[in-house]
Specification:
Elements lengths: L2 E9 L4 H8 L2 H10 L4 E9 L2 E11 L5 H7 L2 E11 L2 E7 L6 E11 L2 E11 L6 H27 L6
Antiparallel strand pairs: 1-7, 2-3, 3-4, 4-5, 5-6, 6-7
Helix pairs in contact: 2-4
Amino acid sequence: MAKSIHETLIYPDTNVETVAALAADPAFRSAVAAYQHALRSDLTVAPTADGRKIRFEYAHGTERVPSFAKKLAGDEIPIIQEETWHGDKADVLITIPGKPGDMRGTITLEQRGADVAQVVDLTVKVGIPLVGGKIEDLIAGLLTKAARAENKVGLKWLAGEWQA
């Protein structure tokens, strides 16, 4: 089984280059992690021949995770999000070290008039018999909330209104 995520987030009155720069900004990614109550976070950015590779590592506590998933996760959930950007599109791989499954897909930035649409398309796969579907649903919900949280912080960040 697999669960698909399709989310379109809007950044009004800006351009693709400005929104793309957020992904590689350590201060912005740190603010997003803090907004989501991450226990810790780290961002590395490396240039590639035709873009850049971003590795965003963060960890969440499990206090708000259902008990069936908490048994599998332990005390915290470390997450590694790798984005390989080529212009206005990124290939995305999200993994939880030591756990079966992954989240793969793309992030695309599109100029739509004066606004930028960030289109997130991911597929969640968890290879655990019996409970894999439940965990896929849980992870899909968490990733959707995370994308919306990043957008919320991004809107305030671009407007110069973000306060840590």
